[in-house]
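Memo to structure team: turn this sequence into structure tokens by end of day. - J.P.
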Amino acid sequence: MEDKHEKSKVPLLNRITKKSCERDNATIWDEHIIPFEDLVQKLDTDIDRGLSHSQVYELLAKDGANVLTPQPKSPKIILFFQSLFGGFGILLLIGAVLCFIAYGIHSLKSNDHFKESLWLGIALVFVNLISGCFSFYQEEQCKNIIKSFQNIVPQKARVIRDGVIMIIKVENLVVGDIVLLNAGDKIPADLRIFEAEKLYVCHTYFKQ
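Reply from structure team:
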């Protein structure tokens, strides 16, 4: 069992959920600005002993697991057609159809085929196909990036519950948990720092 007073640890207060308050139809978040004593009272926790097991069970039943909500999946063929016929693509297809209609009308009225309309229509279809493939590829890349975020979230977290330091799964974190972090640890949830030693923040990634 680890000593909770070890200096290398940085205790944090987990503030996963949002305040149930509506103002101008917008949700108000205030966990990061209200006085710390008010936050502890609001979350009904204890900075030394943490939450009790009964509180954890109630919060898990109420709020659910601490996991990212998966996006609904659609068949790739549907996504591909959406890329082809969505946005600017539908305008290109309409232009191509009009070119084919103009070519057909001119062919019926004259033996001299007006092939410029035909080639323009084919070009528009080709451009739309290339644009749709590129858009579909970009969406797939974005999905892969979102999936990679799951690797950033740690699998385990150290918390204080009933005065005992324990290692739990990240999905079992609840509102009000006292989380302990060492240097190099990944952040398991939205947290508020209330005690730290030699803490430094790197802003390099924010400047990019």
